[in-house]
Design brief:
The complex is a heterodimer.
Chain A lengths: L9 E3 L4 H13 L4 E4 L16 E4 L6 E5 L4 E5 L4 H9 L3 E2 L12 H7 L6 H4 L2 H4 E7 L5 E5 L11 H5 L8 E8 L1 E2 L3 E11 H13 L6 E6 L5 E10 L1 H18 L3 E3 L2 H6 L3 H6 L4 E6 L2 H10 L7 E5 L4 E6 L4 H11 L3 E6 L16 H14 L15
Helix pairs in contact in A: 7-8
Chain B lengths: L1 H10 L4 E2 L2 H4 L16 E3 L4 H14 L3 E4 L16 E4 L6 E5 L4 E4 L5 H8 L4 E2 L12 H7 L6 H4 L2 H4 E7 L5 E5 L12 H5 L8 E8 L1 E2 L3 E9 L2 H13 L6 E6 H11 L9 E9 L1 H17 L4 E3 L4 H12 L1 H5 L5 E4 L2 E2 L5 H15 L3 E6 L4 E2 L1 E5 L6 H18 L15 H7 L2 H14 L14 H4 L10 H4 L7
Parallel strand pairs in B: 2-4, 3-4
Antiparallel strand pairs in B: 1-2, 5-6, 6-10, 7-11, 8-9, 8-10, 12-14, 12-15, 13-14, 13-18, 16-20, 17-19, 18-20
The chains are: A alpha+beta, B alpha+beta.
């Protein structure tokens, strides 16, 4: 298993959180550079590690610590896959609001570390919004908790938030508590065909203007350049969903575009869209920008023929995949995005030279991040060099 | 004295407070039991003035205590000896409204409710609604991660304040988080950890908030019950049915009495508990969920159910709920406000324990709380003129927190730790947990000069009381040792 272009010397697989804690403490004491791996779905994310000897796998730690359906919270060990957590929740007709592209492999810890985010973030929030507690093993092998098991809690600093998107550079995420949601009674989606970017944004404005509450809005780039098939998904109690579908259809008429309800099988396939997008492509990028800036970006960027993409126009995220790509184009995109970012999730190993996978955060904030990393990991052993700014 | 003149040079004489009579206003926040007079108060109007004031304070070796409207209930804005209080209440500009990206940029002194008032003609609002929303500031909300009744469905300040400009303990101006509507920013989520950090990590001088479209419809239901047991049962069955109410608030008999005495709402007095609930969203869904919730409330054993006839009546109902704390002043000379969280399923059991604790101490306890998320606000009633009662009330308050912890909850859901609960934080978290939080603090403020003596339990604050020793950030960052 390669880690951002580097082959670790050793892979260890602790069988319990206690064992994992001991391992990390030993590695730190011996000054052995290490990193963590969950399901290994995002192992090309990030810059070349400065040093890496031992990879610590979390996937044997899969216990459900506490599930309180009445409280809509679940506490699990972080090696559990998203699919396994979903199975437990499904028995009580609840779900975890993390749309992982590969839920059978992606683990809870990995999802938190990489801030996995999907289209239903629009309705249910991202991991930052649903995580309420976390347990970590710090790089020095000390176990610590933050947050708690209740959804409302302002006691102490919000360590759970700090772990979201930290890429395991502040330690291993070994457990987490999430707020979960009831499974909707009805789910339905309308697909608006071959919209221009302007039409897509007008549609978004109309949806918001009518105070509809879509669970997701995704524009899939069509074969026809500059056009998008836009899928608007609604979830909730039956009559509310029906009413929203009717209003959404009326919006199509007003905009003078074609729209039709998605059949159930196509609706079910929605969750797989990212996997489908990425299949066969060596380069994966995630763009994150204010919705208006993202719209401007996709409207004005001359994409090469092999670039496939989808955008969540109300969220401001775009997912791109291509067989061929280069450092110069990444740089050009970042410039075009202004305050937004373009993160390279995957790329061929030989293309890493000269590429910063992340782009530059504001300098003053980076200075605080550096101090934070230095405080948690003064020896610089834990997944060092791979994160933003070489942290 | 020279130092005071230097502050006046930064913010102007008009915005520098030194007269003892005027300093008295700043001796405490909403937790009036603790009082310390600051050396000086400055009221800057720009980020640059805040930065200059911080730099000056540092050069003079003065601790710095940030302050918003001073409505906090945990002593988060309590001064410390010889400190400068930096009050942000004069930074009241709305800087930008971006409807297309549904973001708004404001200065920290903007009043919470003024954001929604400004947005109302546009059909938008800001979701977090602490009961003090007509006077509390957005900067204070960020510091405390303020909640409110409608957080059950929409989340807390941390879910809505997505970016900020802060002045650090070094006087540096830093932007954190998402500035213009992007869903995430690069690197560690420093904004996420800033929210709720109680003024220990930085002084907020600009805030970027999410703004939401007003829902199509809102339906309010008021229901009364023989006791809190039936009311708790109603809450549980509503939540279990998959309905996510926008808000669901419970008041017990004593709280209802107080609210009726203070606000003249026509709520019945011969009941054991009342629920006030909002459902909102698209019209058809609201109709259905309101009907379903009504049926569940009835099945749970409600005595009576009411729906307001118009917006005015609805406003009065909510005004009654939001005035509850102050209202308790009508039925008791003094009261001690508590704020704890428990798993929702344990509400009825915990309320019985609270009643028992009150009875044992010979004190009445009124309960008014966010039932949907298990956030209790027991109000312990006492008479300070009776020797020993105040201490008893405090003791009951503390024991209530221990009950919350016993049930796996938290010592604070929205009021913050501040000075008030620093010693209880050590009962909720281990020494390693707290040391980890101190590591975060030391990355932002290595010398611990921002809002000292808050949040973290220390031997000086807690004496022999529980609360593990936690190292000063200077020790953690390796800049100083101890002993």
């Amino acid at each position: 298993m390669m880690v951002a272009g580097v082959e670790p010397r050793t892979l260890v697989e602790p069988q319990s959180v206690d064992e994992l804690t001991d391992r990390v403490r030993e590695l730190y004491a011996r000054e052995t550079p290490f990193a963590f791996i969950g399901g290994g779905t995002e192992m090309e994310l990030g810059n070349l590690p400065r040093a890496l000897d031992t990879l610590v796998r979390t996937t044997a730690c899969t216990g459900v610590i506490d599930y309180a359906p009445e409280d809509q919270t679940i506490t699990v060990e972080a090696g559990m896959t998203i699919a396994a957590v979903s199975d437990v929740l499904a028995r009580e007709r609840q779900f975890l609001a993390i749309d992982a592209p590969d839920p059978e492999r992606a683990t809870v810890g990995g999802a938190i570390a990489t801030n996995l985010s999907g289209p239903r973030r629009l309705r249910y929030g991202g991991i930052k919004d649903t995580i309420v507690g976390v347990e970590i093993v710090r790089p020095d092998g000390v176990r610590a908790r933050g947050g708690g098991k209740v959804v409302k809690n302002v006691a102490g600093f919000d360590i759970p938030k700090l772990m979201v998107g930290s890429l395991g550079t502040l330690g291993a995420i070994v457990g987490a508590t999430f707020r979960v949601f009831p499974v909707a009674e009805r789910r339905a989606a309308l697909m608006y065909a071959v919209l221009t970017v302007d039409q897509m944004m007008s549609l978004c404005a109309e949806l918001i203007g009518a105070a509809l509450v879509p669970a997701a809005v995704t524009g899939f780039a069509c074969a026809k350049r500059g056009r998008y098939d836009v899928v608007v998904t609604f979830e909730g109690f039956a009559r509310g969903v029906e009413e929203q579908m009717t209003t959404a259809a009326a919006i199509a008429v007003r905009l003078g575009v074609d729209a039709e309800a998605l059949p159930d099988d196509a609706l079910a396939a929605q969750g797989k869209r990212e996997r489908a997008l990425r299949r066969g492509a060596n380069w994966h990028l995630t763009v994150c920008a204010p919705p208006t800036a993202l719209a401007h970006f996709v409207a004005t960027t001359p994409f090469a023929d092999d670039v496939r993409h989808a955008v969540d126009p109300l969220l401001g995220t775009g997912y791109f995949a291509a067989a061929e790509f280069d450092v110069a184009t990444v740089a050009a995109w970042r410039t075009a995005l202004g305050g937004g970012s373009a993160v390279v999730n995957a790329l061929p190993a030989q293309a890493r030279r000269g590429l910063d996978s992340w782009g530059e955060p504001p300098k003053a904030a980076l200075a605080i991040m550096r101090r934070l990393k230095a405080t948690f990991d003064p020896k610089g052993l834990c997944n060092a060099g791979r994160f933003v700014g070489g942290l | 004295m020279a130092a005071i003149l230097d502050f006046a040079q930064i913010v102007g004489k008009r915005n520098t407070i030194t007269a003892p009579s005027e300093l008295r206003t700043y001796e405490c926040d909403g937790l009036a039991g603790f009082r310390v007079r600051p050396a000086v108060v400055v009221l800057p109007e720009t980020t640059e003035q805040v930065a200059a004031a911080v730099k000056l304070a540092r050069s003079l070796g003065m601790p710095i205590v940030p302050r918003g409207a001073g409505t906090g209930l945990s002593g988060g804005a309590l001064p410390v000896d010889g400190c400068v209080v930096i009050g942000l209440a004069r930074m009241t500009k709305i800087l930008a409204i971006d409807l297309e990206n549904r973001r708004m940029r404001v200065q920290p002194g903007v009043i919470n409710l003024d954001i929604s008032r400004r947005l109302a003609p546009l059909g938008y609002y800001y979701a977090p609604d602490p009961s003090s929303q007509s006077v509390c500031t957005i900067g204070g909300n960020v510091a405390e991660n303020s909640g409110g009744a409608h957080c059950l469905k929409y989340g807390f300040t941390v879910n809505h304040a997505v970016g900020a400009t802060i002045v650090t303990s070094d006087g540096d101006v830093v932007t954190l988080g998402a500035q213009s509507g992007e869903p995430d920013s690069l690197g560690y989520d420093l904004m996420g950890v800033l929210v709720g950090s109680e003024g220990l990590l930085g002084i907020v001088t600009e805030v970027v908030v999410k703004i939401l479209r007003r829902p199509q419809a809102t339906r309010t239901i008021f229901a009364t019950f023989p006791s809190t047991d039936e009311a708790s049962g109603a809450v549980s069955s509503i939540i279990a049915s998959g309905i996510v109410p926008a808000a669901i608030e419970m008041m017990d008999k004593l709280a209802i009495e107080a609210i009726v005495a203070a606000t003249h709402v026509d709520w019945p007095l011969d009941v054991g508990a009342a629920l006030l609930m909002d459902v909102d969203g698209v019209s058809a869904e609201v109709e259905d969920t309101a009907a379903a919730a009504s049926a569940l409330i009835e099945a749970a054993g409600a005595i009576e159910m009411r729906t307001p006839h118009d917006e005015v009546e609805r406003g009065l109902m909510w005004k009654g709920r939001k005035a509850a704390f102050a209202a308790v002043g009508r039925i008791s000379p003094n009261y001690y406000v508590q704020d704890g969280v428990i798993p929702r399923k344990d509400v009825a059991a915990v309320l019985r324990e609270i009643t028992r604790l009150g009875n044992e101490a010979g004190l009445r306890v009124a309960n008014v709380f966010h039932a949907g998320d298990g956030n209790l606000h027991p109000l312990v009633l006492y008479d300070a003129r009776i020797p020993g009662q105040e201490a008893k009330a405090e003791h009951v308050g503390g024991e209530i927190l221990r009950v919350c912890l016993k049930y796996g909850g938290s010592v604070t859901g929205e009021h913050g730790v501040g000075r008030d609960k620093a010693c209880y934080l050590g009962e909720q978290f281990s020494g390693d947990d707290l040391a980890t939080m101190q590591m975060v603090r030391s990355a932002f403020d290595p010398y611990g000069v921002l809002n000292p003596d808050k949040l973290f339990p220390t031997p000086r604050l807690c004496g022999d009381k529980p609360g593990a020793y936690t190292a000063h950030p200077v020790e953690i960052s390796g800049q100083a040792g101890r002993g």
